[in-house]
């Protein structure tokens, strides 16, 4: 039987990275932001209707803008992810406007800027995030490990099964059990 490490995975703190980039022009922090957000921004642009090339271009331009404007980020107003996605979304809107494509509907909800999140929503999100982290810490090691591999390292279930030398069904069962325990710990309704 393979012994699992119980050490907690390093936690990626996008807010701290963004502050470090804005304050110190920290290239290592920016590299972390880039590797974490580039694929997510590209996927987000694809969901908004961009083709692969445009999605890649917007993601890269948005992260370049994040590098340039990081000093403007205020953690009291929004999470780092919210801020970065807003930069990307606004960049896409600007690119569409420059192209002056006639098929754009000015009333399209994707083109309407998001309202600033309320302070209590921001605090609530931070509190829930802390509760989720604590709930994950309380999981049995074998469940915590599949959660770490799936969500922190973004590995597909089949790869997790290969890495842990487990059947795919076991990996999926452990994830289901972990989700149920986390949801119960958060007081969410469990089916």
Automatic annotation (TrEMBL):
<protein>
    <recommendedName>
        <fullName>RNA polymerase sigma factor</fullName>
    </recommendedName>
</protein>
<dbReference type="InterPro" id="IPR036388">
    <property type="entry name" value="WH-like_DNA-bd_sf"/>
</dbReference>
<dbReference type="GO" id="GO:0006352">
    <property type="term" value="P:DNA-templated transcription initiation"/>
</dbReference>
<dbReference type="Pfam" id="PF04542">
    <property type="entry name" value="Sigma70_r2"/>
</dbReference>
<dbReference type="Pfam" id="PF08281">
    <property type="entry name" value="Sigma70_r4_2"/>
</dbReference>
<dbReference type="InterPro" id="IPR007627">
    <property type="entry name" value="RNA_pol_sigma70_r2"/>
</dbReference>
<keyword id="KW-0805">Transcription regulation</keyword>
<feature type="domain" description="RNA polymerase sigma-70 region 2">
    <location>
        <begin position="33"/>
        <end position="101"/>
    </location>
</feature>
<dbReference type="InterPro" id="IPR000838">
    <property type="entry name" value="RNA_pol_sigma70_ECF_CS"/>
</dbReference>
<feature type="domain" description="RNA polymerase sigma factor 70 region 4 type 2">
    <location>
        <begin position="131"/>
        <end position="181"/>
    </location>
</feature>
<keyword id="KW-0804">Transcription</keyword>
<comment type="similarity">
    <text>Belongs to the sigma-70 factor family. ECF subfamily.</text>
</comment>
<keyword id="KW-0238">DNA-binding</keyword>
<dbReference type="InterPro" id="IPR014284">
    <property type="entry name" value="RNA_pol_sigma-70_dom"/>
</dbReference>
<dbReference type="GO" id="GO:0003677">
    <property type="term" value="F:DNA binding"/>
</dbReference>
<dbReference type="InterPro" id="IPR013324">
    <property type="entry name" value="RNA_pol_sigma_r3/r4-like"/>
</dbReference>
<dbReference type="GO" id="GO:0016987">
    <property type="term" value="F:sigma factor activity"/>
</dbReference>
<keyword id="KW-0731">Sigma factor</keyword>
<dbReference type="InterPro" id="IPR039425">
    <property type="entry name" value="RNA_pol_sigma-70-like"/>
</dbReference>
<dbReference type="InterPro" id="IPR013325">
    <property type="entry name" value="RNA_pol_sigma_r2"/>
</dbReference>
<dbReference type="InterPro" id="IPR013249">
    <property type="entry name" value="RNA_pol_sigma70_r4_t2"/>
</dbReference>
């Amino acid at each position: 039987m393979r012994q699992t490490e119980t050490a907690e995975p390093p936690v990626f703190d996008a807010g701290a990275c963004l502050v470090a980039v804005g304050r110190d022009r920290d290239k290592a922090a920016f590299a972390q932001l880039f590797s974490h957000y580039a694929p997510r921004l590209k996927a987000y642009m694809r969901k908004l209707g961009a083709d692969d090339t445009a999605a890649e271009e917007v993601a890269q331009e948005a992260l370049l803008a994040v590098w340039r404007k990081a000093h403007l980020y205020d953690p009291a107003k929004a999470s780092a992810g919210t801020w970065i996605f807003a930069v990307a979304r606004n960049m896409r809107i600007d690119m569409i406007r420059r192209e002056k494509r006639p098929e754009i509907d000015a009333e399209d909800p994707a083109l309407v800027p998001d309202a600033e999140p309320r302070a209590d929503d921001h605090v609530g999100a931070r509190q829930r995030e802390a509760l989720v982290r604590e709930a994950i810490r309380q999981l049995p090691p074998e469940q915590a490990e599949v959660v770490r591999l799936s969500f922190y390292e973004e590995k597909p279930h089949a790869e997790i099964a290969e890495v842990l030398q487990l059947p795919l069904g076991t990996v999926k069962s452990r994830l289901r059990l972990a989700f149920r325990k986390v949801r119960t710990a958060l007081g969410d309704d469990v089916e």
